[in-house]
Write a structure and sequence with these properties.
The chain is α+β, with helices and mostly antiparallel strands and 70 residues long. It has helices spanning 3-15, 41-69, and strands at 19-24, 27-32. It has a two-stranded antiparallel sheet with strand order 1-2.
């Protein structure tokens, strides 16, 4: 998935109040809001896994891109 698409989806979730984003230097970590509700707990847990995996993959891609620029 293109980086811009991921960023757009994260911003949309943030605007809806579903997540909050914490900046930690080069990374932005999405934190789920309302994940403790019984009806949505499983959904949010899986979503969290997918977002964290996508974030890690983007970080790896950034590192590879930086190496190629040298």
């Amino acid at each position: 998935m293109p980086r811009t698409t991921v960023i757009r989806h994260i911003k949309a979730l943030e605007e809806l109040g579903r997540i909050t984003v914490v900046n930690t230097g080069r990374r932005a970590l999405p934190i789920l809001i309302g994940a403790d509700r019984p009806l949505t707990k499983g959904f949010y847990k899986r979503l969290e896994q997918l977002v964290l995996q996508a974030s890690a993959n983007l970080s790896k891609m950034d590192t590879l891109t930086d190496r190629h620029k040298m």
